[in-house]
Amino acid sequence: MPLIAPSMLSADFLHLEKDVETVNSCADIFHLDIMDGVLVPNISYGFPVVEAIASKASKPMDAHLMIIHPEKYVERFAKTGAAMLSAHLEAMEDPSAVMGLIRSCGMKAGIAFNPDMPVEKVFRYLDCCDFVLVMSVFAGFGGQKFIESTYERIRTLKSEIDRRGLDVRIEVDGGVSPANSSALAAAGADILVAGSAVFKSDDPVAVVKAMK
Ligand code: DX5
Ligand code: ZN
């Protein structure tokens, strides 16, 4: 059964505690999208919001850094209590070093990459990360349409991980909903991130249950 990670980007920021409690009650992981307006053409939220969520979260937090120079903020995210931290392959000069830094701060280390990055480019870093974040939309905004070629990318990645006998999870992010969750899990995804499908629905708990 996949783990479900609601993306708080689509939460109701005027009633954030309510949406944090929803995740606590029915989902597995808090997915936190951090955007700098430079690596991606949007700005999301920063530490005050992450710390507010942390103060009420009873499930692990997974911060997805869509920022340049991610290495500058690894220690600060560790201090928020984040359990998982991913940075984009497009933003790292030395991905192995960044993954090592994340692990040395006690977090699971993930490599994220956009849909136009050949999936094979991540193969050489599979030994130094704990999870791979496959973007199924271009990073930057919630509510985009799922890109169908993602299934094939996940299958390719999954077979490489299995062939090498590695302990690396696959997380998929963007346009994920009950309509594609079982096919994504069948392709090899372990963690499903969903923002608008969960929080823009009338019944977020039912949506999370349907995805499980
Ligand atoms: C996009 C973010 C996603 C986004 C997902 O750059 O990484 O986590 O919030 O939102 P939905 O599920 O609406 O595509
Ligand atoms: Zn994300």
Automatic annotation (TrEMBL):
<dbReference type="GO" id="GO:0019323">
    <property type="term" value="P:pentose catabolic process"/>
</dbReference>
<protein>
    <recommendedName>
        <fullName>Ribulose-phosphate 3-epimerase</fullName>
        <ecNumber>5.1.3.1</ecNumber>
    </recommendedName>
</protein>
<comment type="function">
    <text>Catalyzes the reversible epimerization of D-ribulose 5-phosphate to D-xylulose 5-phosphate.</text>
</comment>
<feature type="binding site">
    <location>
        <position position="64"/>
    </location>
    <ligand>
        <name>substrate</name>
    </ligand>
</feature>
<keyword id="KW-0464">Manganese</keyword>
<comment type="similarity">
    <text>Belongs to the ribulose-phosphate 3-epimerase family.</text>
</comment>
<dbReference type="InterPro" id="IPR013785">
    <property type="entry name" value="Aldolase_TIM"/>
</dbReference>
<dbReference type="InterPro" id="IPR000056">
    <property type="entry name" value="Ribul_P_3_epim-like"/>
</dbReference>
<dbReference type="InterPro" id="IPR011060">
    <property type="entry name" value="RibuloseP-bd_barrel"/>
</dbReference>
<dbReference type="GO" id="GO:0006098">
    <property type="term" value="P:pentose-phosphate shunt"/>
</dbReference>
<dbReference type="GO" id="GO:0005737">
    <property type="term" value="C:cytoplasm"/>
</dbReference>
<feature type="active site" description="Proton acceptor">
    <location>
        <position position="33"/>
    </location>
</feature>
<dbReference type="Pfam" id="PF00834">
    <property type="entry name" value="Ribul_P_3_epim"/>
</dbReference>
<keyword id="KW-0170">Cobalt</keyword>
<feature type="binding site">
    <location>
        <begin position="195"/>
        <end position="196"/>
    </location>
    <ligand>
        <name>substrate</name>
    </ligand>
</feature>
<feature type="binding site">
    <location>
        <position position="33"/>
    </location>
    <ligand>
        <name>a divalent metal cation</name>
    </ligand>
</feature>
<feature type="binding site">
    <location>
        <position position="64"/>
    </location>
    <ligand>
        <name>a divalent metal cation</name>
    </ligand>
</feature>
<feature type="binding site">
    <location>
        <position position="7"/>
    </location>
    <ligand>
        <name>substrate</name>
    </ligand>
</feature>
<dbReference type="GO" id="GO:0046872">
    <property type="term" value="F:metal ion binding"/>
</dbReference>
<dbReference type="GO" id="GO:0004750">
    <property type="term" value="F:D-ribulose-phosphate 3-epimerase activity"/>
</dbReference>
<keyword id="KW-0119">Carbohydrate metabolism</keyword>
<comment type="pathway">
    <text>Carbohydrate degradation.</text>
</comment>
<keyword id="KW-0862">Zinc</keyword>
<keyword id="KW-0479">Metal-binding</keyword>
<feature type="binding site">
    <location>
        <position position="31"/>
    </location>
    <ligand>
        <name>a divalent metal cation</name>
    </ligand>
</feature>
<dbReference type="InterPro" id="IPR026019">
    <property type="entry name" value="Ribul_P_3_epim"/>
</dbReference>
<feature type="active site" description="Proton donor">
    <location>
        <position position="173"/>
    </location>
</feature>
<feature type="binding site">
    <location>
        <position position="175"/>
    </location>
    <ligand>
        <name>substrate</name>
    </ligand>
</feature>
<feature type="binding site">
    <location>
        <position position="173"/>
    </location>
    <ligand>
        <name>a divalent metal cation</name>
    </ligand>
</feature>
<keyword id="KW-0413">Isomerase</keyword>
<feature type="binding site">
    <location>
        <begin position="140"/>
        <end position="143"/>
    </location>
    <ligand>
        <name>substrate</name>
    </ligand>
</feature>
<feature type="binding site">
    <location>
        <begin position="173"/>
        <end position="175"/>
    </location>
    <ligand>
        <name>substrate</name>
    </ligand>
</feature>
